[in-house]
Every structure is written in structure tokens, then in C-alpha cells.
Description:
The chain is α+β, with helices and mostly antiparallel strands. The protein is built from eight helices and 16 strands.
Amino acid sequence: MVDESRAGGARAMDQNQMTQWRVGILHHPRKPQSQTLAEEMAAVIHAHGGEAWLASAWDEASVLSHLPGANLMITLGGDGTVLRAARMGARYGVPILGVKMGRLSFLAEILPDDWRDPLVRILDGQFWLEEHMMLDVTVHHRTEERPHQHHYEALNDVVVSRGRLARIIRVPTYVDGVYLTTYAADGVIVATATGSTGYALACGGPILPPELRNILLIPIAPHLSLDRPIVLAQGATVKLDVESDHETILTIDGQFRVDLSNRDRVEVTSSSHVARFVRLRDRNYFYKELMDRLRWQL
Length: 298
């Protein structure tokens, strides 16, 4: 049965949902073997009395049309596939089960050559749910004749950075409405605990356990400005202003790009949605998994 010692996980799926599985299986369009595996998994789910539908992880319209009423999504790919699914599933509270078909896959739970028994255990309710904070991102375009906004959600990180020219940008930064500093750097990363093992780690940020709800603020190659990462409290709001006379871009989870102009503002805070992941491993898995994945353990 679902471990009810985690309040969030216990609330996420009731007993009726546990016996009526409606599962989306998202395959990678550039990995033909993932569609074959998706069909095999669907057969197992059907044999256990559940329903399953298949879709490309890149076909957002198709996935979203199936999500109401679903209670599990299985992703076949790397962390990029999981990120796509998590952003979509979070809107409906649908948890994710990642199957590792990428190189690193911090977020995946099972392997493509050993999936049958783990999947049956999950269908029998023997799992727990891990909740990850997400980011709410609003882009204020303020230099055009008609200022407007764009809105996004991110699971890993939000990055304001220079474009193709090797020239620093200046980013006046505010936390909870109070001026913090002006970064002179290649860019600034705002990351979740989930994203702390990604680009943020490469730029010298700290590693956080995935269920922490802190926000990380990390400069990229700072020049004569604040060069230390900062860990912000849950619920903090970060505002990044753009001061640049050359190309500046915003990337969300490394998958969306937004062109920015001088005086534009990017506002980031915690999202009202959370990403939920199905886990079979022990609750203290994270640190050993971290050492294994990064090959830091002798």
C-alpha cells in the first residue's frame, strides 16, 4: 500500500485511485526502443486491470488532453523527458515514474532492462511519493510600446544569461522586494533543490536534498561582483532586472528560450504546484545515489 507516513503522498492518491489505474506512458520520439517498451508496459498495466495510453513526450497537446483523470505518468527517456512530463503532470497532481533511458537521469526510478517487477509492485501500491517544489516564472517585457507578460513553470531552474557575445550582463537583483546586489556576470541561475544537481552544481552551487523547498541564487562567472551562491527561504520572491545593450536570454529548464531586452524583469517564486515522483527506494537513497551518479565514491 502507499506509505501514509508522508502526508503529501497519502493525500495525492486515494484507495479508489489505487485500484483503478489510468496510466499515461510517454515515449521519446527519437528513441524507437522507447515506444516498444511503452507497448510492453501498457500490456502489463492492462493485465492488472488498469488503463494505459501512449503519447510522445513532445506532444504536449495530446498529453494534456489525457491527463484529467490520470493517476500516473511513466516517462521513457532522460531527465529532459521527465521535466516535460513533470511540468504537465503538476497541473493535475499526476505523479511521475521515470524509466532511465538517458545518460544520467537523476530523476528516474527504474531501469529499462529491469522494469517488470518494479512496475507490478507499484500497481500493487507498494511505493511512496516524493514531492518537489517548482518555480513560478513571470517575464515582464517593459521596453515595447505595449508592455506584456509571459508566464512559465520550472522544475529545475531559470537562467538569465548573455547570448552569443562573450560580454557580461548586469542584473540588479531583489529578494522579497529588497535590493540585494547587481550581478556583473555571464548570467544568474535561480534553481530549486531538484535543479541543484544540474547547471547550478556546475556553477559552484550547493547540493540540496530534493524535497527541500529552498530557492538557490547563483551567479555564472561573476566579474568583480558577488560570487557566492545564496540559499533563500521557501516562498522567497526573486526579481532579476536586465541591464544590457546586447543579446540576453532567459531559459526555463533548459527547454524554453525567451529573448530579453534592456529593462525587462524576470520574477521568480515558488509555484502553487508540486511535482510528485513515485519512489521504490529507501527514503535515505539520495546521498548514496548522488555519489554513485557523480562517481565521487571510491
